[in-house]
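Changelog note: in this version the structure field was regenerated for every chain. One regenerated record is shown below for reference.
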Amino acid sequence: MKQPFVCVLMLCGILLAGVTGPSWAAGPGPSPMAGEDGDTDWTLGEVRKIARETGKITIRHQAIPNLDMPPMTMVFQAEDPALLEKFQPGDKIRFRAAMAGGKYLVTHIEPAP
């Protein structure tokens, strides 16, 4: 009875490994930007969509350690909608995110070096 359960677990692991995204978004360890300027809370990502009228941005991102979040694509609210003015889908970025009032916020954003 244990063998089918083990097979299901292995299959789930294989399937999850195939949908984690690009190699820069996967894997444990610090962000490539960590420690560069003394900050470890910058995260690399790619802008997928921007809804300027609502101040929301969809980002495919690497792990966000300060939010205990794995790599994924998700929607963030911009803390200040003006942060989104110079970005468009496809841009490579680095950003800082926080949780406030039950919402995930982008608090800082800039082009990735």
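Spot check on this record: The first strand starts at residue 43 and ends at 51. Residues 2-18 form the longest helix (17 residues).
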